[in-house]
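Quick start: load a record and inspect it. Here is Energy transducer TonB:
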Amino acid sequence: MEPKKNPKSDVSRNSSLYFAVGLALMLGITYMAINYKTYDKADIIADTLNLDDELEEEVPITEQIVTPPPPPPPPPAAPEIIEVVEDEEEIEETVIESTETEMEAEIVEVEEVEVAEVEEDLEVPFSVIENVAVFPGCEKEKGNAAKKKCMNDKVNKFIGRKFNTDLAGDLGLPPGRKRIFVQFKVDKSGNITNIVARGPHPGLEKEAKRVIGGLPKMKPGKQRGKPVVMPFSIPIVFQVQD
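Running the structure step on this input writes:
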């Protein structure tokens, strides 16, 4: 005898389907539990914006200054009344005569005008001049170099004899070595000109000019056989004692 069983009441018939649905449900619940986030209430700030609370800006009331209109322009000046005065005085007219000559006038011939040549004072430095100026007493020296040395020695000896070395003490200058630079020129006639001195005191410069101005007349220097101006410079050095 076969047991009587309703086939619809068989539970094991859909067990695989129920297993799959349960597994999917559990996976969904597990995923939601993992991704669930919570927030602290203290971090949430609730604020409201009231659009009715607007800042009211006070506009300053400015006073409008009404500038007065410019004054009207002055009326035009009345025209001057011109009086017509009759000429009673006679004015002599100036007659300009023509400077053109007539065909018959004789032309006077002008003789040739001679232009005098003005010789410029050529200046040749002492170091390059062909024939140096000769100091009195150096005429016997042979050669330009020997005459230069002789002139230099003679000028130094002359300054040593004539220069007042006690002047520095009278001027109240401190002790020590004093130096005065002197420049002068020997012109084409052999005279001493254009004396310039530069020193520590105007009194010393004046004394140096006085001494150099007393140099004797020399035989002028020559360049290419013609007398020329020769500049010369020399220092004057002396010691002021305590």
